[in-house]
């Protein structure tokens, strides 16, 4: 302002003119009309109002953005540059009862693409496809699935990269913006397909699953359990993802690593399954391509030691998603590998059901152990003749012999005395005809018919002739191998029905136990101990007696008690005269064998079903025997004395503690 | 013509020199930060701009020796030359990024539309100052000649296409014409026809990308990843600077490439991010002081041409500044108007320095007669 005044003074025309030389003064006066010049000078001065206005506008806008909204923009700037990549957590391991690793993890190298700014770069896709040796369409297909997700969420382009490809991509990362190597834990199956139905497999999470609230926190591309324990114990196994924070520039290039969070591995799940036993069972089932199931259970706790369904699933085929071809192959396989026969296979229990009939008959007092019935080889009821499997007849048989030699005639008559509903009552109490509640999916309940059921189901009254079939485990009767194993265990332990379980412990990564197996009693026959002892004698005789049907399951130093069964699939006259081997596979009888040992102080029950295996004694019993041999190990060959001392350890119910106890002695 | 005047030093515009140097230093510092690529030495872009500054100062010294009244005659020659250059650009130059703006001179890509702004100011100042003074203000027919003078380069630049610079010419013409004092009836008539032209231009004249830019500006969320991206990132850069900035060379928006065109059109956003409100305010005060000083030069100019010219030059710098800063702060759509003295680019920088040189020239000769 001071300056201006000074200048104004200087500029006053009089003064100017006075100071200047004459000729200059004249030119100036002729050239300029001062009034006009002043008019424009004034206008120039007024125009500075416009400048002031815009200056004020700019300053207030700056104030608004930087001071008032500054905090907000600072956050935006931070979000702009800080990205995170999620690091998959290693899934929990799956161990057997002795701590042997069945399923663990190993690193797998995947290629992912981080699309910054949602740009689709044709050149990049082309280059990447070439390096990975895959079709461009494949990349585009995987990209399309991720449309709509934020650009920094990586799209997986290829899995299980070989080392040279990993090295190539790492070395050429400048030319492949956004293409990154992701290290992901991948499942390793140390025992191949061991217990595959039980363990299950992983698959990529589907869009539908992503939307469900139970998968909150999961992202597209995550692997989740799709079957078996991997699915049922997803919450235990999955662990917590880690995060890798980094500063990126606008092109998505990583500039700097920031602090991150390490992933937390999932909990380890220890099974009650014994790898040795499971392996023996599966190997023997695999021989001659048998299909069926083997179940072994600790009779005093309900721990499942073997859960084998044959044929096994080929778990490797499921890694990284199963192909349609492989899936169709499995579906069309006549041995139905996708069916978990342990709980989904329902078969007539056949002669093994005679145990149920016998228990019911003793409990209801319709027979005494000493009562004998004459078996001429056939039995006439109504206008039909029911045959015994031994066409020449067994002669006079009491309960023990009837069980040992599996006399049908004896049980026809006993069953007839009992009636269908009374048999059903005991079957249900032994755990048949209802789901066991074991941790496997899609369990079938089997079927124990009653007259009421038939009326409801078929709108027809019960025929007494049908009771005869029921009494020997044919007809409407259906059980799963697990149910039958449970029933056998209940008979073995003197009448306690345990909830079957297969999880020994669940431990967090710090080895703290967060879940432990506890035997759970579902049902107890208080007053049946004596009756069961009589039945046990019959079952011992079946294995050890001279005419027993299950002699092939006999062990040297361990007394095995068991019952065979041969379940008719169809009753077709045209096959009657054929030799068994000539009957088409799918019409052959199913072979059952169920047993427990040692008979004196039972520890383990084993149930074997071989689909279309013809005879329980020949097809199923040897498998059970092998499992028992493996289970008892040295004890099966040593003297009785030592086996006897071992029994004190049985009260602790754990096989692990049992062996350690034995080694102390 | 190049005779040394003993009053040269006595009347030298030291105020303008100081303010110009201050702004130059800020500009170069900001450019240094914006273009620094992590290496041990500044980027070649920085050195190029530095040389342009030095060359521009030399040009100013040269211009100070020529009486600005002699520039009046030169300006008509320059006007014809620049129109021919614009025609040449349109006809013979390969397009870069969809427009034909640059002529390759080997050492430097000349953008003729930049000096065209300055030359237009000179020619318009001459045209209006030679017009007979009318107490009631000019009528429409009195401004036909300056309008025609503007229209030629305006259309040539519009078809490059460079909407921003063309609009700049129109704004300069409008400012100077309003300054020349129009009758109210004429203003109303021109204003309403301007609105009609604008509406027609919007509907039929604009290229798709130009229309989208304006639409994006009006609704930035509609397309955040593409056209709204620049505005959004620029606002984040400015806003995240807060009161005192992230520190020189510490701006994340600029250094991590989120900010587009960070050494050219969005150069000031880098400054705002790194030095915050304090630094930005300091810059604005310096810059507007320079503009007010320019107005003062107009107030003290010795003749009508000098007043018109000084006013026109101030408007040239002022409008570019306002439009660029409004754009950076998200108050205007993205149009390619650089920030004078601040944005990287030789054509714009030299044009601005020459304009400042002429202002100093007028200031120096305020007591002189021809």
Features:
heterodimer, A: 665 residues, alpha+beta, Penicillin-binding protein 2a (Domain 2), seven-stranded mixed beta sheet, five-stranded antiparallel beta sheet, 25 helices, 23 strands, elongated, disordered N terminus, disordered C terminus, B: 370 residues, mainly alpha, two-stranded antiparallel sheet, 2 strands, globular
Question: How does the SSE layout of this entry go?
Answer:
The complex is a heterodimer of chains A (665) and B (370).
Chain A: H1 2-11, H2 13-19, H3 22-31, H4 34-68, H5 70-81, E1 82-87, E2 94-95, E3 101-113, H6 122-132, H7 136-145, E4 155-158, H8 163-171, E5 179-189, H9 196-199, E6 202-204, H10 207-211, E7 223-225, H11 228-232, H12 234-237, E8 242-248, E9 254-257, E10 268-271, H13 275-286, E11 292-298, E12 304-310, H14 324-332, H15 354-364, E13 373-375, E14 378-381, E15 384-387, E16 395-397, H16 399-405, H17 408-418, H18 420-429, H19 451-458, H20 464-471, H21 481-492, E17 496-498, E18 503-507, E19 513-516, E20 521-524, H22 529-544, E21 561-567, E22 590-597, E23 604-610, H23 616-632, H24 640-650, H25 655-664
Parallel strand pairs in A: 2-10
Antiparallel strand pairs in A: 1-8, 2-3, 3-4, 3-5, 6-7, 8-9, 10-18, 11-12, 11-23, 13-16, 14-15, 17-20, 18-19, 21-22, 22-23
Chain B: H1 7-10, H2 14-35, H3 44-64, H4 68-92, E1 103-104, E2 109-110, H5 113-129, H6 144-158, H7 163-179, H8 184-205, H9 208-218, H10 227-240, H11 252-255, H12 267-300, H13 304-328, H14 346-364
Antiparallel strand pairs in B: 1-2
Helix pairs in contact in B: 2-3, 2-12, 3-14, 4-5, 4-6, 5-6, 5-7, 5-13, 5-14, 6-7, 7-13, 10-12, 12-13, 12-14, 13-14
């Amino acid at each position: 302002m001071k300056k201006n005044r000074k200048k104004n003074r200087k500029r006053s025309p009089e003064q100017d003119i006075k100071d200047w030389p004459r000729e200059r003064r004249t030119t100036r006066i002729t050239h300029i009309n001062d009034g006009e010049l002043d008019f424009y000078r004034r206008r120039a001065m007024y125009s500075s109002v416009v400048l002031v206005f815009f200056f004020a506008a700019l300053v207030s806008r700056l104030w608004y953005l930087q001071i008032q909204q500054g905090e907000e923009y600072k956050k935006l700037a931070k979000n702009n540059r800080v990205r995170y990549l999620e690091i998959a957590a290693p899934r929990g391991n799956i161990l057997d009862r002795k701590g042997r690793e069945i399923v663990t993890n190993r690193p797998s190298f995947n290629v992912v693409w981080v699309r910054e700014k949602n740009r689709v770069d044709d050149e990049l896709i082309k280059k990447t496809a070439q390096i990975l040796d895959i079709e461009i369409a494949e990349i585009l297909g995987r990209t399309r699935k991720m449309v709509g997700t934020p650009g920094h969420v990586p799209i997986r382009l290829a899995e299980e990269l070989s080392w040279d490809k990993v090295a190539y991509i790492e070395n050429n990362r400048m030319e492949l913006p956004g293409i990154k190597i992701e290290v992901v834990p991948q499942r390793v199956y140390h025992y191949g397909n061991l217990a595959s139905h039980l363990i299950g497999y992983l698959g990529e999470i589907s869009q539908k699953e992503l939307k469900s609230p139970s998968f909150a926190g999961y992202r597209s591309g995550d692997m989740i359990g799709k079957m078996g324990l991997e699915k049922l114990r997803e919450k235990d196994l999955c662990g917590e993802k880690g995060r890798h924070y980094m500063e990126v520039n606008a092109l998505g290039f990583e500039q700097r690593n920031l602090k991150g969070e390490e992933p937390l591995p999932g909990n380890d799940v220890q099974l009650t399954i014994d790898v040795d036993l499971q392996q023996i069972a599966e190997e023997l089932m695999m021989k001659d391509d048998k299909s069926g199931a083997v179940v072994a259970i600790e009779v005093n706790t309900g721990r499942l030691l073997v859960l084998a369904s044959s044929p096994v699933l080929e778990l490797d085929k499921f890694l990284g998603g199963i192909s349609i071809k492989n899936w169709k192959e499995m579906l069309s396989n006549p041995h139905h590998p996708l069916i978990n026969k342990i709980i989904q296979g329902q078969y007539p229990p056949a002669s093994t059901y005679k145990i149920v009939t016998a228990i019911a008959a003793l409990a209801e007092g319709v027979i005494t152990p000493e009562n004998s019935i004459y078996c001429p080889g056939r039995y006439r009821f109504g206008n039909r003749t029911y045959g015994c499997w031994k066409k020449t007849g067994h002669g006079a048989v009491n309960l023990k012999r009837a069980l040992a030699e599996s006399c049908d005639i004896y049980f026809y008559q006993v069953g007839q005395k009992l009636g269908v509903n009374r048999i059903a009552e005991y079957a249900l109490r032994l755990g048949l005809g209802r789901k066991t509640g074991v941790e496997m999916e899609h369990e079938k309940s089997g079927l124990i018919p009653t007259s009421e059921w038939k009326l409801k189901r078929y709108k027809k009254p019960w025929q007494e002739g049908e009771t005869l079939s029921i009494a020997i485990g044919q007809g409407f009767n259906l059980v799963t191998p697990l149910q039958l194993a449970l029933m056998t265990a209940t008979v073995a332990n003197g009448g306690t029905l345990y909830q079957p379980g297969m999880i020994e412990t669940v431990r967090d990564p710090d080895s703290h136990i967060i879940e432990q197996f506890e035997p759970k009693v579902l049902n107890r026959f208080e007053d049946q101990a004596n009756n069961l002892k009589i039945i046990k004698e019959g079952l011992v005789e079946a294995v050890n007696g001279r005419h027993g049907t299950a002699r092939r399951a006999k062990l040297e130093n361990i007394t095995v008690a068991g019952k065979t069964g041969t379940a008719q699939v169809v009753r077709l006259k045209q096959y009657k005269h054929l030799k068994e081997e000539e009957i088409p596979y799918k019409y052959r009888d199913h072979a059952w064998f169920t047993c427990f040992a040692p008979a004196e102080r039972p520890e383990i029950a084993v149930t074997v079903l071989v689909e279309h295996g013809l005879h329980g004694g020949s097809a199923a019993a040897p498998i059970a025997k092998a499992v028992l041999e493996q289970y008892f190990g040295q004890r099966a060959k040593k003297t009785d004395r030592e086996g006897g001392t071992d029994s004190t350890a049985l009260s602790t119910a754990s096989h692990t503690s049992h062996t350690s106890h034995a080694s102390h002695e | 013509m190049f005779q040394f005047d003993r009053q040269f030093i006595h009347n030298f515009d030291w105020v303008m020199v100081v303010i110009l140097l201050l702004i130059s230093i800020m500009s170069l510092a900001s450019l240094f930060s914006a273009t620094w690529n992590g290496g041990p030495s500044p980027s070649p872009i920085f050195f190029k701009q530095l040389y342009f500054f030095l060359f521009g100062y030399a040009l100013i010294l040269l211009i100070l020796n020529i009486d600005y009244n002699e520039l009046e005659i030169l300006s008509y020659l320059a006007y014809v030359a620049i129109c021919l250059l614009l025609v040449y650009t349109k006809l013979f130059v390969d397009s870069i990024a969809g427009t034909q703006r640059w002529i390759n001179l080997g050492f430097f890509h000349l953008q003729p539309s930049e000096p065209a702004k300055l030359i237009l100011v000179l020619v318009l100042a001459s045209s209006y100052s030679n017009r007979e003074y009318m107490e009631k203000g000019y009528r429409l027919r009195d401004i036909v000649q300056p309008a025609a003078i503007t229209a030629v380069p305006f259309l040539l630049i519009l078809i490059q296409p460079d909407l921003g610079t063309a609009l700049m010419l129109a704004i300069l013409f409008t400012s100077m014409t309003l300054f020349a004092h129009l009758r109210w009836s004429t203003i109303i008539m021109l204003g309403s026809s301007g609105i009609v032209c604008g509406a027609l231009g919007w509907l039929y004249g604009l290229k798709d990308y130009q229309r989208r830019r304006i639409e994006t500006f009006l609704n930035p969320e509609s397309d955040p990843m593409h056209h709204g991206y620049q505005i959004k990132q620029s606002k984040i850069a400015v806003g995240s600077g807060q009161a005192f900035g992230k520190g020189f060379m510490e701006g994340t928006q600029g250094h991590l490439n989120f900010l587009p065109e960070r050494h050219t059109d969005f150069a000031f956003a880098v400054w705002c991010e790194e030095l915050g409100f304090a630094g930005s305010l300091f810059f604005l005060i310096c810059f507007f002081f320079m503009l007010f000083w320019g107005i003062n030069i107009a107030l003290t100019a010795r003749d009508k041409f000098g007043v018109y010219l000084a006013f026109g030059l101030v408007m040239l710098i002022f409008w570019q500044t306002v439009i660029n800063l409004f754009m950076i702060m998200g108050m205007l759509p993205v149009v390619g108007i650089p920030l004078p003295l601040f944005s990287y680019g030789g054509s714009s920088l030299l044009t601005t320095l020459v304009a400042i040189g002429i202002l100093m020239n007028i200031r120096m000769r305020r007591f002189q007669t021809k």
